[in-house]
From TrEMBL, chain A:
This protein's record includes keyword Ribonucleoprotein: yes
Lineage, uppermost ranks: Eukaryota, Metazoa, Chordata, Craniata, Vertebrata
GO CC terms, sorted: cytosolic large ribosomal subunit
The gene coding this protein: Rpl14
Species assigned in the record: Heliornis fulica (sungrebe)
Record region (Disordered): 129-163
A Pfam cross-reference name: Ribosomal_L14e
Compositionally biased residues, Basic and acidic residues: 143-163
GO annotation, biological process: ribosomal large subunit biogenesis; translation
Protein name in the entry: Large ribosomal subunit protein eL14
UniProtKB/TrEMBL annotation, chain B:
Protein name as catalogued: 60S ribosomal protein L6
Domain Large ribosomal subunit protein uL6 N-terminal: from-to ranges: 32-91
Membrane-spanning segments: none
Family under the similarity heading: Belongs to the eukaryotic ribosomal protein eL6 family.
Entry's Gene Ontology cellular component terms: cytosolic large ribosomal subunit; endoplasmic reticulum
GO MF assignments: RNA binding; structural constituent of ribosome
Subcellular location: Cytoplasm, Cytosol; Endoplasmic reticulum
Organism from which the protein derives: Heliornis fulica
Name of encoding gene: Rpl6
Domain of life according to the entry: Eukaryota
InterPro entries reported for this sequence: 60S_ribosomal_eL6, Rib_uL2_dom2, Ribosomal_eL6_CS, Ribosomal_eL6_KOW, Ribosomal_uL6_N, Translation_prot_SH3-like_sf
Amino acid sequence: VFKRFVEIGRVAFISFGPHAGKLVAIVDVIDQNRALVDGPCSGVRRQAMPFKCMQLTDFVLKFPHSARQKCVRRAWEKENITEKWAATRWAKKIEAREKKAKMTDFDRYKVMKAKKMRNRIIKHEMKKLQKLISQKGKKSKAGKSEKPKKVQKPEKAKKAQKA
Amino acid sequence: MAGEKAPAEKNPAKKKAGEKKPAEQKAGGEKKKKIKKHHASRNPVLARGIGRYSRSAMYARKALYKRKYTAPETKIEKKKKEKPRATITKPVGGDKNGGSRVVKIRKMPRYYPTEDVPRKLLSHGKKPFSQHKRRLRASITPGTVLILLTGRHRGKRVVFLKQLATGLLLVTGPLAINRVPLRRAHQKFVIATSTKVDISGVKIPKHLTDAYFKKKRLRKPKHQEGEIFDTEKEKYEITEQRKTDQKAVDSQVLAQIKKVPQLRGYLRSTFCLSNGVYPHKLVF
């Protein structure tokens, strides 16, 4: 049922509070509600932090409990957590949300235009395939896939424009 | 006492003038000023602060009747002596009228009110509108794209040119893009976006002022109830000058707009809110 556990070395994402949005590693458990936490590579000093504001990630580091910051840092850099984190979908979603919130009026216009163009292309392909099917259907042939492949190009162009 | 010193200095001055030439011949050996001794007070003291003689007696004793001086005439006073003309002769028509009349330039008032105008109380710092301080939001700089919120062009995105003397913003569509001409907009009824067009090279003609844009109203009814309501300007006509000014400014602005991709389409579009769009959450 549960896949991610609170353990020594578990990397957690801080969801609210003064360090919101940063990654930390659990160094030790203080009591039922708090953990000793350290984020040498993410700018969080070693401190106690309630579990409530932490969200566990998939990453676990290997260091002994109450290890000092140097060890935590070494383990962190060995595993390359910051890069792995940036590659996760979770981090990408956060980034996309931030970008959307920062969009200016002009950006919103550009996105609207890009979406419109993309949808047009998709619809165009759909119609083409539908037409094919309706023609072939008259000749009663089976098994033509209806859904087109997702058009990747305009999506990337949209994201590049947003950035 | 001041009067006493003056003649004392004048005499040695006169003596000096006569003496100066031989004195200079002596190669300036003598002193420049001969300090003449002043007479002691001619008013004996009876008690502290009280003199023996009155003012008028002292006047006579000090012989002030002999010593009356005026300040030298300054250049300004010399110039001021020219008095303005009081009358002017004007020619008069008609037969046997004696050709001309002498007319006063400044005439006496023809009406004196029974009560004078009451004096206004002093007020401090109440300036007329023309002297008010004009402010401009920091987000609005020349070249900013603004969204008009009121008026017949509401929702349209428009380029800001400059702030006029009354504080209103001079704004243009440009006309070819969204049919907004050179127009004034009020700062408060405008959203400033963060999109800017580079307008540094655009020259805006100097005659585009508030007076140029002010609405004109005919005001000469000849007290005839019949046709007043028709002649007053209902239909606004675009003057040729407006067209030329519009072209002059727009050609420059359009050139800058074309440099930014998709900006032209952006200016053509209008701003609107839809479900889930909250202005306080939007970044403009």
